[in-house]
Amino acid sequence: MTSQETQTEGARRRVTLPPSTPDKDTPSKKGSDEPNRISHTEFQKRVTSDRSDEAVFSCQFEVFGIVQGVSFRMYTLRRAQKLGVRGWCKNTNENTVKGEIQAHRNSFESMRLWLKHTGSPTSRIDKCIFSETTELAEFTFTNFTIVVD
């Protein structure tokens, strides 16, 4: 059996593996099919800067359940940053979390689904209510923040 083949024990069949990738020391050919790799930060810049003609969607939300404390708000902040969502959230006196989100369509829908179904690992969301969605010409928030009373 060559180094390009392997044999499974149970079924006793041969599987041919694709050729291995060239060593890093091997110079790559110009015009190769390898994509140019960019950092996550550079990717985020390109994604957000190329979307100026897309509509911005906005809505307010209120989350009910075991969501008080720093954990839910911090997870919401991290998810919003990851998706490029802007807005705010805060704890209320009624033991809920209220906030507002603004984003382009795909990020907006992803954040709504996350708020409705996921939340933080230490929270239990009973329900999440959203206000009507409005379409804006541009963002009114520069980022996502946690409001502390």
TrEMBL record:
SUPFAM superfamilies in the record: Acylphosphatase/BLUF domain-like
Domain Acylphosphatase-like: 58-148
Protein name: acylphosphatase
Domain of life: Eukaryota
Keywords noted in UniProt: Hydrolase
Record's keyword annotation contains Hydrolase: yes
Catalytic reaction(s) noted: an acyl phosphate + H2O = a carboxylate + phosphate + H(+)
EC assignment: 3.6.1.7
Family in the record: Belongs to the acylphosphatase family.
GO molecular function term, any single one: acylphosphatase activity
Chain residue ranges for the region called Disordered: 1-46
